[in-house]
Amino acid sequence: MNKYQFPQGFLWGGATAANQIEGGFNEGNKGLNIADVLPGGKERYNILMNPGFDFEIHRDQYYYPNHEAIDFFHRYKEDIALFAEMGFKAFRMSIAWTRIFPNGNELEANEEGLAFYDRVFEELHKQGIEPVVTISHYEMPLHLVKEYGGWRNRQVVTFFERYVKAIFNRYRDKVKYWMTFNEINSGLVMPIQGLGFSYQKEEDKYQPTFQAYHHQFVASSIAVKACHETIPDSKIGCMILFAPVYSFDSNPENVMYALQEEQLFNYYCADVQVRGEYPAFIKRYFKEHDIELEIQERDFELIKENTVDYIGFSYYMSRTEKKVKTGAEGAEGNIIGGVRNPFLETSDWGWEIDPEGLRISLNKLYDRYQKPLFVVENGLGAYDKVEEDGSIHDEYRIDYLREHIKAMGEAIEDGVDLMGYTSWGCIDMVSMSTGEFSKRYGYIYVDKHDDGSGTMERKKKKSFFWYKDVIATNGEKL
């Protein structure tokens, strides 16, 4: 037992994304999206981080794990029953845009796609689980990428508005909690998935990136407005990839550099969606990078009048920075850069493990915004071994999650208003960054492997029973 007191009604649960669990990539009249053209294995990370991707499927070269994923499209009842057995209060999921509008620019929504999510939401409610729905989670329609250039094109705002209004109207009685764009700030390092385009090698990346962001901010505001009008008792939030930035040492130059990196990565997108205006620091950044945005007359008014109700964010790691660094100092596994922190251990994939960083993140966000917070992603990707008797002893995952939940408890004691916790990958699925099945996050093991083999059988890990007790005691038993 411990001293932590989580609020009554705290939303304990797990998180997923449609493109990483559903499969059925060409069923139900679904169109192709970005995830459908990303191969599995190390090639995926290189594609995400480097310019010039062609957004084509090359079956003779690559395996595409998202096409089948873990087959939630057909097995959702089985999986939701397992979530209910753990006692989930909430299940964070996303709607695949291309199930609703296969190309993204149709005038009418696809009834087969709408009906699929009707069934999923009905099953969740039957099991007493509140859906928390991300509207756009790294699955932009491929047609909008190839024909319109992704979010750099203002026309995409109109297509997105049509999409959100269709799902709000359809699910107005089934979904109370929404989020607009998953990890919206990730486009600063991986524009393919979040912004829907790949830089050309000779292209200046700054102008298209921040023009695309402006269009997303407008689209997010349109979604907030439509959600509040269509579902008056709803809550709609933004979703940020948050990683507190530490200075490598007390050298003022490094401290200032770390501050600037944190401002841009952690607060730029959040400030616009939560405060309703561009932050002061971005003006200098635009000036220094010759960025001039095309802005329509009512954009700033729309953004100001339609701010989010809460802040959803993912937390996996912190980031340590110094102004001048050598290649040998890099924290390669961290994806978002920085230098190695000598005080932290790393996961099997090189991600630095920093539970105290979650408490720091919660305090920073709440101090800045005074809005309810929701940890909608946090978890440990690791190799799991199935024993001869079928059991999976993932004590390392339990240890990781326990320390992060303790950090949340401390933040609540600090005065932070925290709504809930949906740990990432409550069931094993395709890894976003590497396209691997072997990078497992779940409480539920799925017999699916990096070469595409496997029976899809679901098995409960030791962490399944541990998390069940955590939820049943509202965080008292860790």
UniProtKB/TrEMBL annotation:
GO terms for biological process: carbohydrate catabolic process. Gene3D superfamilies: Glycosidases (3.20.20.80). The active site is at residue 377. GO terms for cellular component: cytosol. The keyword Hydrolase applies. Keywords: Glycosidase, Hydrolase. GO terms for molecular function: beta-glucosidase activity. Pfam families: Glyco_hydro_1. PANTHER family: 6-PHOSPHO-BETA-GLUCOSIDASE ASCB-RELATED, GLYCOSYL HYDROLASE. Belongs to the glycosyl hydrolase 1 family. This is 6-phospho-beta-glucosidase. It comes from Cytobacillus oceanisediminis.
